Amino acid sequence: MAAGTTRKISAASARAHTRKSKPKAAFKFSGIFKKILLVGLVGFLAWGYQATRPPPPKTCGSEDGPPVTASRIQLKDGRYLAYEEYGVPKDVAKHKIVFVHGFDNCRHHGSALAANLSPDIIESRGIYVVSFDRPGYGESSPHPTRTVKSLALDIEELADQLGLGPTFYVIGFSMGGQVVWGCLKYIPHRLAGAALLTPVVNYWWPGFPSNLSQQAYNQQLVQDQWAVRVAHYMPWLTYWWNSQKLFPGSSVIAHNPKIFSNPDKEILPKLISLSKEYQAIPRQQGEFETLHRDMIIGFGSWEFDPMDMKNPFSESGGSVHLWQGDDDDIVPVTLQRYIASQLPWIKYHELSGTGHMFPYADGMADAIIQALVG
User: Fold this and answer.
1) Which InterPro entries match (predicted)?
2) For residues 296 and 231, what is the distance between their CA atoms, to the nearest angstrom?
3) Strands 168-173, 127-132: parallel, antiparallel or unpaired by DSSP?
4) Which residues contact 268 (CB under 8 A, 6 or more apart)?
5) Helix (H) or strand (E) holding 346
6) In the chain, what is the straight-line distance between the N-terminal and C-terminal CA atoms, in Å?
7) Residue 4 to residues 1, 7, 9: CA-CA distances in angstroms?
8) Three-state SS across 228-284?
9) What's residue 24's pLDDT?
10) d(CA 155, CA 73)
11) 128's torsion region: left (phi>0), alpha (psi -120 to 50) or beta?
12) CA torsion, points 55, 59, 63, 68, in degrees to nearest 10?
C-alpha cells in the first residue's frame, strides 16, 4: 500500500487507548499524597520530640536561676550539695546522722523533723543531724546521670567533707527511705546504722511475688498506676506524661488530697504550717531533675534487689530499722511486711492507725532516734 494510506482505528481500540492515561494521573496524585503524609509525619515526630524533651533546669547561682542561700559543698565532679545542720556541734556529737528527704521535699523538711526531737534527747545522746537537698532539689546541682549508686556515693562524700568520721547513721523518709537501700548496698562500711521511714517500694523488684506486687500496684489511683508504669517502661516519656493536660498525671506531683489516709489528714495541717515558708524551694530549679528523675530511678530497673541483701552489720553491731504505718495509702504496708519477712535482720516497726506522714507526729522523732542509736 502507499505511504499515505489512512489506517482505520476501531472504536474499541480508541477507548482502550484513552484508558491508558488514567493510571498516570492516579500515580501522580498518589505521589503527592505520599509526600504530604511524609511531611506531616516528620512534623509530628518533630513536635513529639520537642514535647517529650524537658526544659533545662534553672540551676542555682546561674543568670536565670534562684540565688544561692544555703551552705554547700562541692563534689569531686563539680556539682554542689546544699545542706543544713541541726543539734549539737558535730565535733562533740556522739551520734552523727544524715537525713535524706522525701519526694517533693528539701533539706528544710529534715530540719523540721529534727526540730521535733526533744532537747533532752539531743543533749543527752549527743545528736547531730545534717539534712541535704538531693540532686536537683532546692539548691543542690542537678545530676542528669543520677543513679541509685551515685546518690549513695554523694552521701558518702558529703559525710567526708563535713568531717563526720568513719561511720555515721542514715535516715530516709519516703523516697528518701528508698535511697537508704542504696546506702546499705554501696556504702555499708560507712554506716553505723540506718532507718527507713515508710520507704517507697519499686513494684518491679524481682523478689516480690507477682500476685502480691500486682495487688499492691492496683491499690494506687489509676492515674498513678499509669504514671509509674510510664516511668518504668518508657522513662523518656515521663516528663511529657506528667506535664500534658490531656489526662491526669501523677496525683502525688499534683498534691491530690485523695492520696492521703485519714491519719495523714490529721497531721498535714501541722506539716503545712512548718513548711509554708519553703514550700516552693524543692521545685525551684525545675520539676524534671527532681520529681520526674525520682520516678525514673525509683521505679526503674535496679542493679540489685533489696530482698537479696545480707545483713551489713552482722559483725559491727549496727542495726537497720524499717518503720511503716498500717494505714498508709501511698506506700502499701503489705509489701513492707513481705520485705521484713525476707530480711529477718531488719527490725520492723509497724504502727497501728498511722499513715504515710507518721514521722511528723508528736513523739515519733524521739522514738525513731532512740531505736536507731540505742
Assistant:
1) AB_hydrolase_1 (IPR000073), AB_hydrolase_fold (IPR029058)
2) 5
3) unpaired
4) 260, 357
5) strand 346-351
6) 123
7) 8, 9, 15
8) HHHHHHCHHHHHHHHHCCCCCCCCCCCCCHHHCCHHHHHHHHHHHHHHHHHCCCCCC
9) 56
10) 11
11) beta
12) 150
- All three cell numbers of 108: 528544710
Three-state SS for 362?
coil
pLDDT over 70 percentage in the chain: 87
Q: Could you identify the residue written with the cell 518508657?
A: 234
Distance (Å, whole) CA 219 – CA 209:
16
Q: What is the DSSP letter of 55?
A: P
Higher confidence at residue 36 or residue 273? Answer: 273
C-alpha closest to that of 121 among 95, 89, 92: 95
Name the helix (H) or strand (E) containing 107: helix 107-114
- Which grid coordinates belong to 125? 545522746
Q: Tens digits of per-residue pLDDT, 178-216? A: 999 999 999 999 999 999 999 999 999 999 999 999 999
Whose cell is 517529650? That residue is 52
The upper half-sphere exposure of residue 60, i.e. CA atoms within 13 Å in the direction of its Cβ, equals 24
pTM to 2 decimal places? 0.86
How are beta strands 71-74 and 80-87 bridged, if at all?
Answer: antiparallel
Cell of 112: 523540721
Q: What is the pLDDT of residues 136-182, one digit of tens each?
A: 999 999 999 999 999 999 999 999 999 999 999 999 999 999 999 99
CB 147 within 8 A of CB 235: no
Which three three-digit cell numbers place residue 27?
Answer: 500515580
Cell of 183: 546506702
Phi, psi dihedral angles at 94 (to 5 degrees): -90, -30
CB atoms within 10 A of CB 248: 18
Report d(CA 231, CA 302) in Å as an integer: 13
